Amino acid sequence: MPGLPLASVLAADLRTPSQGFSSMPLLVVGSVAFDSVQTPTDSRDNVLGGSAVYFSYAASYFTPVHLVGVVGRDWPAEHTALLRDRGIDTSGLEVVPTADTFRWRGKYLSNMNDRETLEVHLNVFGSFNPVLTDAQKHCPFVFLANGAPAVQHRVLDQVVGPKLVMADTMDLWIREQHDELMALFRRIDGLVLNDSEAKLLTGDENLVRAGHRICQMGPRFVVIKKGEHGAMFFADRETYVLPAFPTGVVVDPTGAGDSFAGGMMGYLAQRGDFSPQTLKEALAHGILVASFNVEDFSLERLKQIDQRDIQLRMEQYKRMLAF
Amino acid sequence: MPGLPLASVLAADLRTPSQGFSSMPLLVVGSVAFDSVQTPTDSRDNVLGGSAVYFSYAASYFTPVHLVGVVGRDWPAEHTALLRDRGIDTSGLEVVPTADTFRWRGKYLSNMNDRETLEVHLNVFGSFNPVLTDAQKHCPFVFLANGAPAVQHRVLDQVVGPKLVMADTMDLWIREQHDELMALFRRIDGLVLNDSEAKLLTGDENLVRAGHRICQMGPRFVVIKKGEHGAMFFADRETYVLPAFPTGVVVDPTGAGDSFAGGMMGYLAQRGDFSPQTLKEALAHGILVASFNVEDFSLERLKQIDQRDIQLRMEQYKRMLAF
Question: Within a domain: residue B267?
């Protein structure tokens, strides 16, 4: 990528030529949850959710994924089986037998974009302290899903020579753990966050300026997620925006941001390079996986699709943008 | 365009081969105004504005434009000269010597998207009753800028065999003149409106569904303007969205929608065809002209650019969307 100091990354490639450039393992550390979701027209209670779940399922279409998270005594084995069936390594899913799994309850407003959190029970996630195995530590691609910056730092303290580290965050940490978050930004390659968070972080309502300001805080590149309006990419000398795939079927936006990040980073890990072209293709893949995700509750829609469906939609998407 | 019953239009082409396919005259009928604009950081009083002004200036980069509107005794000759200097035919600009020009005062909220109207003085525009000359009646491309549906109907009653008629509207008419608006939709080829108006008109918060529902109300195609998020296109068998050009310089969004429509329809009139490809190129040209327009108050930014600037930005835009 022009303007990005990726020389060290490229040097790492040269040191491990036998690894090749395809389908490198991807580690995600984040929440695993039961979600209860109300939309204007429907609802679901206690369905499978959590940032690491959406991310890993989305990424699994592209590359081997190692999931690290924590669940409680109420966790059914079939949820683990569902993830394993997609080839996700769930050996990092710690089961705490004395407490319950993280639960979130939320309600979407009529625009299906803004949402209200009705209940949060952190349960086992409140004391989540990820300890990585050797295999997890050596994953070349690492995603720090939304969580306390202190936990994200602890993961980074353990990983060994990653090729690419991306992180997500949220308004809570921007407001309440600002210093820890700023320190994190200096340790990661890419940051993904949504539009309202980018505005909050910079105090700038213009997303183009906000994106570049966040780049100056440390990350080599920044992706601003705009929900139904797509996503923007920022690096030192690059700015672009890609629209969302226009779907009339928006059933539940929960997990859209995480499945976007999973599709994007899964594609990068599959390709194993970070050229501007590959990054843009990755962004597009993230957008498309997210566009499937919102078409039903939980993982229901993603469970129905395979790589060929993503590829077909990609062809439609490319035609849409060509003129 | 697949699925659009444009046979009559194509037949009309065959009847007038000598007219050729390039730079056909474009008629716009709409408001001419003095705007007073407050943004979070700056303001301007009594600057040149109005839907027909923004539209015609934007379209003038592509095709000959005939402007029909009304102004009052307070109208300075230099505003007319400014439009004439871009080749716009201002002979349809009626000057009423006994009253004042339409005045609008508005204030943008910090997001530079939502705005509040502080004052409206319709003045001469309140009794605007456009009477077209023969040359104006025979313009093959017609744009009915935002105005009372009754006035838009009166324009359509006068035009003779137009090739393409597009119209804009607003929330006021959707709420208060619903039947007249519905009748108008059955007389036009294309409708442009913004996202909040599309939601109001259909009662549907999903813009993809809303766009197709509006197509079913009569227009052959519908364009939903999304401000900083670009624009969506809908026809019987087509749906696409193109993002806005990402600019960090958003000084004043006033006239963005009208300059978008002017760029789009100016390009269509220049090309003289309505193939899906040309329509998409036209949408992109509208997006780019609007992206210049918002970079300063009134027409200040457009006054600085020429066709080459639009072309250069188009190359950047196409690169941005290519992957």
Answer: yes
Confidence of residue A20 (pLDDT cuts 50, 70, 90): very low
Find chain A residues with C-beta within 8 A of B238's C-beta: none
- Classify residue A251: in a domain, yes or no: yes
B303: CATH: 3.40.1190.20
A286 in reach of chain B (CB within 8 A): no
B181-236 pLDDT per residue, tens: 999 999 999 999 999 999 999 999 999 999 999 999 999 999 999 999 999 999 99
Do residues B223 and B230 lie in contact, with contact meaning Cβ atoms separated by under 8 Å?
no
Per-residue pLDDT band for B246 (boundaries 50, 70, 90) equals very high
CA distance A143 to A276: 19
- pLDDT > 90? residue A203: yes
Q: How many CB atoms lie within 10 A of CB A196?
A: 16
Which pLDDT does position A3 carry in this prediction? 37
Reduced to 3 states, what is the DSSP secondary structure of residue A141? strand
Q: How many domains does chain A have?
A: 1
**Rg, Å, chain B Cα set:** 18
Q: Residue B205 is nearest to which of A112, A226, A244, comparing CB atoms? A: A112
Give the predicted TM-score (pTM) of the model.
Answer: 0.91
CA dist., res. A197 & res. A146, Å (int): 12
Q: Do B111 and A247 touch (CB under 8 A)?
A: no
CA distance A290 to A94: 27
Q: Which of B208, B244, B321 sits opposite A246 (nearest CB)?
A: B208
Which of B110, B207, B246 is facing A205, going by the closest CB pair? B110
